[in-house]
Amino acid sequence: MAAQVVWTRPRRQFYHTNCTQSPLPPTTKNEGKPVKWIIGEFSHETNTFSTVPTGLDAFRANTYEVGEAAAEAVRNTETGMGGFLDVIEERGDEYVPTVLANATPSGLVTAEAYDEITGHITAAVRETTNADGVLLALHGAMVSEATDDGEGELLRRIREVVGDELPIVVILDLHSHITEQMVEQASVLIGYQKYPHTDIYERGVEAAGLIAQLACGEVDPIAVMEKPSLIPPCGTCHTDGGLYKELWEEALRPERPARILTTSLFAGFPYADIPPMGYVTLVYADGDRETAQEEATHLTNMAWERRREFVYTPTPVAEAVRRALASQAKPVVIPDIADNPGGGGANDSVEILRELIRQGASRAAIASVYDPEVVRKAEETGLGNSLTTSLGATTDTMHGDPVHIQGTVSFLGDGRFQYKGSMTRGAWANMGRCAVLDIGGIRVIVSSERLQHRDPESFRACGIEPTEMDILVVKSAVHFRAAFGPLVAAIIPADGPGLTALDLTPFPFKRIRRPIFPLDEM
User: Which of 19, 177, 247, 251 could be 216's S-S partner, Cβ–Cβ 3.0 to 4.6 Å?
Assistant: First the structure.
């Protein structure tokens, strides 16, 4: 296997509280005071090919809460930090909330945004001298103006304050760039196991239980990381079926060695031109390096030997629309996978809309097209009135051309809605001020903020009942499957222009490791 990285982390000794053996009952320190955990979330998936910088306003447009407001924002939600909170409160432990910051994937995180948000976490670490550990929900694919390794640098800053003894447990998106610095600085890294990410809450619960075991001295995690020369395209590494599902089934098999604490199979995030990008197997075993190494090698070999099963065959936009119109069963979902704002797409490609108009579609709905200027025009035009305008393709030249349309303004709203599907249920989303334009029976949600549309509630928030449509177009690659799958008759992906196209060969990679499959024949 060419260009494989194999790395093991040295054993780290932790300060042990005088805990009970169970991770669920209340835990107490020697002096009888409750155990205290520092918790926080800072998440961004950075597409380095995007020209849209990610500043503080990008986080404010999505989620940016500090201190107790961060805890309240995740309470009763199926999120990672929500999982932390539920376990901590069930045990009767104390917690120090730091920050909850998420931005829609886009370009490099600005130095200002990175330093301000990480500052909330490091300040709490410095000020909380009696903390027993740090629980973080990060992404794993954050790239800032100053560093390729956004998460590793944050963990380094925390370690610089707390030293080697305090346990730090982190949950990560499975589209992470796992670096040696991340594995070295954290006690344990735990990746999501599902794509769509319907297990984020469960990974938060797992992390909150494991950190208690660490603090009590019940486990001694030893890490082994293997990194083959492999980049799986996002669309072929979902866990609804196929190789990635089988890899996870093998990793979680009931008969796996009992000393394995946790295993992660990180698919990597293919839209970042940085050296650590790519697939990673990460295994932690309890005091047993040999077992961790054997398991990591076994799982890595399985992925590498069957790597060609990850190769993706694209479907042109015109063909996807033709098949959707011809389908007898309705509704049909067409995911606009190449313009997925959940991976850094501009959210403003109108190539599928153009083709729907050309092929005479009706009873179709699109969520959404990012075009704040058209939203402004719609608001000026008013409900029920006709608007003639150019729509879409305003961010860059990589998402196609604008389309000239005439439509009726059928809805105006604030664009806020609550997720009700199985991914981050209970959390709130924000499309910004939005309008719906009815173009001959094709209803287009036009938004003033970028957002991946992975939940039917984005349509309902704009007065559209998705089950009454024949065709639904969503700006998403895989996550939509969790909530839309039970509602629709068929899924027909479309491959248009954009920064999240599944064919990686046109991307101008300059810094990633080479050779690497499938960009290079191996």
Answer: 19
